[in-house]
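Reopening this ticket.

The earlier resolution said the output was attached, but the attachment link was broken on my side. Pasting everything inline this time so it's all in one place.
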Amino acid sequence: MQTTLDVLELLEKEDDKQRSNNLKGKLNRSISRDIGEFLSVLVRGLGSTKILELGTSVGYSTVWLALVAQSNSGHVHTFEKDTELIEKAKMNIEKAGLSKFVTFHNESIESAEIPESDFVFLDTETRDFVSHLNRFFPKLIPGGTIVAHGTLVNFEEARDYIEKVRDNPKTNSVLIPLGRGMELTYKFKNDEPEIFTNSTMVR
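Inline output:
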């Protein structure tokens, strides 16, 4: 019987093989292990229970988030419009024994009903970040957090998104220079101290 660690290691090897062989076509494009561990530590520390993932792929990052949901008595809603990828993700989550902590949405977020969330992991095409933000931000509860993945290596594509979250009077946002880079954004509560809501974050 496969353990959760077995599933993660198998997906890591599969992703490494695709990248090292410069394979073309439909790739897993999973996050790296250090990003998975970062997400686990961050979301556990935040105590998030309403986790939204945009860009499931084959479910590697979903495993990390579902482990946190299991620990926090929470749940993950994950969106992936590619049917082939999401079916692989379902199998991987089942193998990891985490199916009851994940709801899969095989649809585009642009037309979907967005669930309320207190943590969002954004890992779709970088050029779509702004349109996706516009869809889920109203359902992100005050005090919620967003992690947008790949904003350093895809900086030019991510520029509009970065400017939008940093210029928003309802958020503070900073770059995390780990892996491919992440933009970490916090949505203010209604009673935030003035020093936070009036500060201009470093660009």
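Reporter confirms the inline version is readable. The longest helix spans residues 4-20. Helices lie at 4-20, 33-46, 60-72, 83-95, 129-136, 155-167, 194-197.
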